[in-house]
Amino acid sequence: MTSQILTKVQEPHSIESRLQPNAISTAQDTVIGMAYAAPTLSIGLTLAGLVVATSYAVGPIILLTAVPMIIIANAYRRLNLWNANCGASFEWVGRAINPYLGFFTGWLMIAATITGTTSGVVVLGPSILALFDSNPTAVWPNVAISTGVILVMLVIAIVGIRITARTQVGMAAVEYAILIAFAIAGLIAVLGHRHGSFPITKEWFQLKGIGGHGSLAAGLLIAVFMYTGWDATVYVNEEVKHRRTNPGRAAVFAVALVTVIFVLTSIGLAGVVSPAKLQANSSSTLVYVAQALGGSGWAKVMAFALALSVIACTGVAVVILARMIYGMANHRVLPPVLGNVSTRFATPIVASVVVGVILIVITWVYLLSGSIANVFTQLIDVTGLLCAAYYMLTALAAIVYYRRRIVSQPWDLMLAGVLPAGAIAFLGWILVKSVMGAPASQLWSLAGVGIAGVVLMLLARFVLKAQFFNTPRESAESRRS
Fold first, then answer.
1. Are 329 and 351 in contact (CB under 8 A)?
2. Fewest 10 Å CB contacts: which of 177, 349, 399, 468?
């Protein structure tokens, strides 16, 4: 396949956007990326496991993982300068490397977002029920809460990107204030040697942790899962002010800011209680730690923050899934009806409704059917691997697209060549380590996702007859544009 050299920043094959341009700012877009990374939910799900894996070296492991994530985010930024389309990695990989690989990348994005969102939605009910001292395991209240939240966030997503962004900023302000306040309170308690706390020592800041018992590989596996989601900033790029420059910047900002939150909260909260009590309450770590700090009233405040994190994550998921699907449908690799945009709200209304229905159906099946729920659990467990895979493909697309600059510009050799290649190698190592240690059920889940993607790709190629698969390869010219 011949390679087409671009002589300036252009989007020769892009579909004209019908979404609302210049609707949200860089700051709002950054919050959207942070919301889907869901710091409170991520810390709640991983803190206990991360402490065990790293032997309390949570800070260094999180900081180490931030390096390749920022490099990948910068690859997204550079690719968005070339082509600001909400299909994002689907288009970038397809036009820089191969359209079939581009479609598969788009499928990985969709599959990872659906499974990742489900993992958050199913823990929402217990968090809300805990606020009212109700039975957190009651099935129908959980179903009602999850369904209600999805429907509300779907309506907000349909009404417009502006109200979505404002809603996200409002929830983020409350959620992060609560989380950071507890982290500071926890840090004060630990440094003050409060009774029952576990002291911070210099070994917390060494990669091997206390006594050298930490596992670097195990810690990095968990930390990579924590970071996934910041790329939400680029799926709304057609609606951000200065659509080519700001969404990529927002991705880098989102990674940097969640890193600060992750480090502060993990160090601040990990030592509030003893290691034994932390592990004994691993399913409700944040709520238990908050209760240890201030009693049942403060535990409810933390449960509220956790619920806000899940709600915000769900709202962003509806928005970005609809735009991923919209971007792919515009190229007819998905049914064209999914590319319809409301003239009143300037949002992909059909795709949004389809996303809402899918999330509700999956949530109902998960909560009501134990046997099928086990299948979804295996899919949820491999979400981080799916994200790592399409992050790697996107970084590879940046290297391939800017390959002529890499060999002609020393600065680009480092930024667009060496560093992304290193980040790919890092994520590839994580991927291999995860697969090697995964049970057979998770491996079958990964195989199922791959087979489903191939089937959908064949349908797009031979049934929908999408011309996207005839897209020629493109690359940037060697001089700066």
1. yes
2. 177
Residue 181, in any domain of the structure: yes
Asked if residues 288 and 273 have their Cβ atoms less than 8 Å apart, the reply is yes
Q: How many domains does the chain have?
A: 1
- Of the given ranges (23-32, 244-253, 340-349, 401-410), which has the lowest mean pLDDT? 401-410
Rounded Cα distance between 159 and 347, Å, is 7
Amino acid 3: pLDDT: 43
- Tens digit of pLDDT for each residue in 299-342? 999 999 999 999 999 999 999 999 999 999 999 999 999 999 99
> In this structure, are residues 220 and 55 in contact, taking their beta carbons and an 8 Å threshold?
no
**Segment holding 476, helix H or strand E:** strand 473-476
Mean residue pLDDT of the chain comes to 90
Q: What is the CA radius of gyration of the chain?
A: 22
Do the domain assignments include residue 394? yes
Q: How confident is the model at residue 12 (pLDDT cuts 50, 70, 90)?
A: very low
Q: What is the DSSP string of 309-341?
A: HHHHHHHHHHHHHHHHHHHHHTTTSS-GGGG--
Q: Are 335 and 329 in contact (CB under 8 A)?
A: yes
Backbone angles phi, psi at 42, to 5 degrees: -60, -45
The DSSP output letter for 14 is P
| Cβ atoms 115, 379 nearer than 8 A | yes
The closest alpha carbon to 182, from 268, 277, 282, 284, belongs to 268
Confidence of residue 139 (pLDDT cuts 50, 70, 90): confident
Task: Give a yes or no: residue 481 inside a domain.
Answer: no
Better pLDDT: 57 or 12: 57
CB 205 within 8 A of CB 59: yes
DSSP state of 413: I
State the residue range of the domain holding 274: 24-476
201 is a domain residue:
yes
Task: Quote the tokens at residue 447.
Answer: 């195989």
CATH number at residue 456: 1.20.1740.10
Tokens 């417009």, located at residue: 160
- For the stretch 172-219, pLDDT in tens is 999 999 999 999 999 999 999 999 999 999 999 999 999 999 998 889
Average pLDDT over residues 332-358: 95
What pLDDT does 378 receive? 66
Q: What is the DSSP letter of 417?
A: I
